[in-house]
Design goal:
The complex is a heterodimer of chains A (264) and B (397). With 264 residues, chain A is of the alpha/beta class. Helices cover 28% and strands 30% of the residues of chain A. Chain A has one domain: Rossmann fold. In chain A, a hairpin with a 2-residue loop joins strand 10 and strand 11. Bound molecules: flavin-adenine dinucleotide and adenosine monophosphate.
């Protein structure tokens, strides 16, 4: 079975600090990594290919340097990596991203399953998976924590919910987004690393995938960021001193006086 | 061609933009800033520049619609077994305000089976109209049938604003719908306001794990869609004497869906889910051993709250992943969050720092959790927890 995994490059940390003097953001360690959730998607894709035969491909939309990052996925068993890279894609929101990825995936063609991470660590939107499924015109299931059965034309999987899970069946091709519970990603093998080094990463432009540039990037993005700011948490921290008995008594008094309990 | 450009004459080389860029996409070349090609056009640098030296040319967008043809505020009222979920009331609270500001109507859309009680409640909580689609086949949420029905309703009803919960279902349904009708969708909003100048919806949301807030608009497409976080919007006091209209929109209900929900399994049997809880008691590796989670469970039970956990304990197999709070777990916002034996790593804080009151219990006085704590107790959780349980049991009878 052929699987395509969507992988996004994100900044290696999302810690944003405020410079009190200049009132600006200080960002540390801007080194780029593969979105942590996507490593589970990669692992699942490789496992399916190993179990059923076929091919596992990763696709990413990003700047040229992402190509190097995609080698990491080849080191853990991905057969081929495709990078959609074009200035026309810059400024994409989740709708434009879904569109571009759908064009890229259709260009790769002949796939049974598309796997995305649950969400990206920078934007945290979790919108690209379902949005992409819609653009591809195929069904989707989010928050998949286990694939119970997969064969040509059929998947049965468990979707995590707030208080448990659901068992969902879909025809293939389909899109799933996965949570980290689904597997434990493997480490790269020596052989894999050798292969990754030599691998050729296919770079495709908007023209290569036949994307309408009006639907890509900033032009194809209905949403616009108008303002950003660092939230201020005014915490009046109060340390409660004393013996454990005294600490507990005083804490309980404070909380009870604030009427913090659920109103039933 | 749209893009961001440094106006060299105005740039004084102060580096403010370099510091502001979350993507490390601006560098200094001598005394001038240059934009690198990993720029995502997010625009954060533009207001950061105090010298108006960054030009952001947005260019026309595609697929714009005639926005004057859209009116009304809609919310998606999630329900289980005919009972609206708390998020539905929160959305009505937020939607009521927006509808009043826009001088328009507030409509709740509810899809399911046996909905008459739900309709009544939704009106009591602020809806002017409830559009109910009722059918035996819709009793359980299904991505395919729900999105098909919803899209038909949107195409006919043309709301200008559509709010959904940032719940498991809402985060699956909303992007599917937005993608079909080609409109914008802002995820996980924590603040919604009408711009008094032009009536646009200002949607504010956390990004980068809550370290940065972004205000987003959707100026040329309709509806303006947003998912809204649990517990941030306040429901109205229900008023059962409120009058409202219940309508049954004419839609075609898919008879056979390709997506089939075979089983719905409950594994968490608490009274309240993490997302909805007013009180959360969370345990970390400081508990020392998995069996000590029973103290966490007990305190949560006494307080009618839910049980949370740090990733370290989930990774160690002490507790199920559904309980994990934080960047790779759930985002929560209870009135009170008890962090017991949790160090307070940024990834954990990302999921809980918006709680109203944070109580930290930790042996190490330098643990970062104390920086965000409203009340801190330096001490052994194994000693404090049993005392707290006793104290609250006595106080609450
Ligand atoms: C990409 C990424 C995503 C992540 N996502 C998440 C996430 O979603 N959620 C999350 O929680 N973490 C997340 N993490 C992990 C996070 O960085 C921390 O490793 C984790 O939160 C630490 O858990 P902890 O506080 O339980 O354990 P520790 O860091 O080991 O802290 C234990 C604390 O307990 C205290 N202690 C010890 N004994 C006692 C005692 N008897 N009484 C009281 N206190 C005691 C110690 O002083 C210490 O502060 C993520 C990490 C990465 C890299
Ligand atoms: N630029 C991109 N390239 C490839 N995959 C992406 C991209 N953006 C998002 N995705 C996929 O969609 C998932 C959800 O991302 P998001 O909707 O941005 O939170 C990610 O985990 C990826 O699998």
């Amino acid at each position: 079975m052929n699987v395509i995994v969507c992988v996004k490059q994100v900044p290696g940390t999302n810690e944003v600090k405020m410079n009190k003097e200049t009132n600006t953001i200080i960002r540390e360690g801007a080194e780029a990594i593969i979105n942590p959730f996507d490593t589970y998607a990669v692992e699942e894709g490789v496992r399916i290919k190993e179990q059923t035969g076929g091919k596992a491909t990763v696709i990413s939309m990003g700047i040229p340097s992402v190509a190097e990052l995609l080698r990491q996925t080849i080191a853990v068993g991905i057969d081929e990596a495709v990078l959609l890279s074009d200035r026309a894609f810059a400024g994409s929101d989740s709708l434009a991203t879904s569109y571009a990825l759908s064009k890229g995936i259709n260009k790769i063609g002949d796939f049974d399953l598309v796997i995305c991470g649950k969400q990206a660590m920078d934007g945290d939107t979790a919108q690209v998976g379902p949005g992409l499924a819609e653009k591809l015109g195929i069904p989707h299931t989010t928050y998949v924590r286990k694939i119970e059965e997969i064969r040509k034309g059929y998947i049965r999987c468990q979707r995590m919910t707030e208080d448990g899970y659901e068992v969902i069946e879909m025809p293939l091709p389909a899109v799933i987004t996965v949570v980290k519970e689904i597997n434990e990603p493997r480490l790269p093998s020596l052989k894999g690393m050798m292969k990754a080094k030599k691998a050729e990463i296919r770079i495709m432009t908007a023209d290569d995938i036949g994307a309408d540039k009006d639907l890509c990037g900033l032009k194809g993005s209905p949403t616009q960021v108008v303002e950003t700011f660092v939230p201020v948490h005014d915490v009046n921290s109060e340390m409660i001193e004393g013996t454990p008995g005294e600490q507990v008594k005083r804490l309980a008094e404070k909380l009870l006086s604030m009427k913090f309990m659920t109103v039933k | 061609m749209s893009g961001i450009r440094i106006i060299e004459e105005s740039c004084i080389g102060c580096r403010l933009c370099v510091k502001a860029c979350p993507f490390g996409a601006i560098r200094m070349d001598g005394r001038k800033a240059v934009i690198l090609d990993n720029c995502t056009l997010c625009g954060i640098c533009v207001p950061a520049c105090k010298f108006n030296a960054i030009d952001y040319e947005k260019g026309p967008v595609s697929n714009a619609v005639d926005i004057t043809k859209y009116s009304g505020v809609w919310i998606f009222a999630e329900q289980k077994n005919g009972v609206p979920e708390p998020i539905s009331y929160e959305l009505l609270g937020a939607g009521r305000k927006l509808a009043d500001d826009r001088k328009t109507r507030l409509t709740a859309v509810v899809i399911g089976d046996k909905l008459s009680d739900a309709c009544e409640k939704l009106i009591a909580y602020g809806a002017d109209e409830v559009m109910a689609v009722e059918d035996g086949s819709l009793a359980v949420y299904n991505d395919e049938s729900y999105s098909d029905i919803f899209v038909q309703m949107i195409r006919k009803g043309r709301p200008e604003i559509l709010l959904m919960g940032a719940t498991t279902y809402g985060r699956s349904l909303a992007p599917r719908i937005a993608s079909r009708i080609n409109t914008g969708l802002t995820a996980d909003c924590t603040r919604l306001e009408i711009d008094p100048a032009d009536g646009k919806l200002l949607q504010t949301r956390p990004a980068f794990g809550g370290n940065l807030m972004a205000t987003i608009i959707c100026p040329n497409h309709r509806p303006q869609m947003a998912t809204v976080r649990h517990k941030v919007m306040k429901p109205l006091e229900p008023d059962y004497s409120r009058k409202g209209l219940v309508t049954r929109p004419e839609v075609s209900i898919p008879r056979e869906t390709s997506v089939k929900v075979r089983e719905v399994v409950k594994t968490i049997f608490e009274m309240v889910s993490l997302a909805e809880a007013d009180v959360i008691v969370s345990g970390g590796r400081g508990l020392g051993a998995p069996e000590n989670f029973k103290l966490i469970n007990e305190l949560a039970e006494v307080l009618g709250g839910a049980v949370g956990a740090s990733r370290a304990t989930v990774d160690a197999g002490w507790i199920e992943y559904n309980h994990q709070v934080g960047q790779t777990g759930q985002t929560v916002g209870p009135h009170v969050y008890f962090a017991c034996g949790i160090s307070g790593a940024v990834q954990h804080l990302a999921g809980m720092s918006s709680s109203d009151i944070i109580v930290a219990i930790n042996k190490n006085p330098d643990a970062p959790i104390f920086k965000v704590a409203t009340f801190g107790i330096v001490g052994d959780a194994m000693e404090i927890l049993p005392l707290l349980i006793k104290e609250f049991k006595a106080a609450l009878g």
